[in-house]
Amino acid sequence: MIVHLLDGTYELFRxxxxxxRFEKGENKPFDAVGGVLHSVxxxxxxxATHIGVATDHVIESFRNALxxxxxxxxxxxxxxxxxxxxxxxxxxAMGVAVWPMIELEADDGLASAAxxxxxxxxVQKVCIWSPDxxxxxxxxxxxxxxxxxxxxxxRNAAGIRDKFGVEPALxxxxxxxxxxxxxxxxxxxxIGRVTAARLLNRHGGIEAFPPExxxxxxxxxxxxKELATLRTDAPLFSDVEELKWRGPTSAFAACAExxxxxxxxxxxxxxxxxxxxx
Length: 278
Fold this sequence. Notes:
The chain has two domains: about 1-160 and about 235-270, 5'-nuclease (Rossmann fold), CATH 3.40.50; about 165-230, 5' to 3' exonuclease, C-terminal subdomain (DNA polymerase, domain 1), CATH 1.10.150. The protein contains twelve helices and six strands. It has helices at about 10-20, 30-45, 80, 85-95, 105-120, 155-165, 170-180, 195-205, 210-215, 220-230, 250-260, 265-275, and strands spanning about 1-5, 50-55, 95-100, 125-130, 145-150, 155. Strands 3-2-1-4-5-6 form a six-stranded mixed beta sheet, sandwiched between helices. The longest helix is centred in the first third of the chain and has 15 residues, at about 10-20.
């Protein structure tokens, strides 16, 4: 089987701003939620059977205590923020395994789910549907890959090396050195992508750098590495069969009605009918 893991928060942002462009600057209530559900159904229509979605139930995480400028919920539009929890409820009603993250982030949830799923010999491949560069560290050979829907790209370990210049395992070190503006940490001044890749390929992880490479900036680099390193210890599920989509719950019809999207239940029925015929 192939396990598909989605970043629900990323998908919600993508749908919110994509639909705003389509609607010429306006957003309808919960339209982004419906958009994410249709994205999940599209993956199921393509033959997926096992799927899970991680979300940021809250934006802040343990990383905010490590770095005061780490990303927060400040600045997120209220119309978008108001759809975070309804998305989780809608996914659950649609029968999809959903993991709302509180102390950890959605990326940590995806990393944890990928670790658990890839350890199961029944799983042929794990696909992480997110272009987030943090998640590149999860890629493992051809077994765990990263799918960039917008760029229509699937990256295995070789693809990560081509993109970043380092092995997937060194992505936290790479991000620590070059910074991640989206997450709110600046990296080490004077070290760009090319220099970072060269240093990491020569010495290995930051801990192995000769003292003169970073000097008094070493502790800062290690703190940024801690920010960039995804947690993989969230106990999200014990059996990969918990991720198998078996159809929506009895609550989904009412949920779709609240979302104002009658196509959702019909699309679910079509997928189930098709699966029953194969």
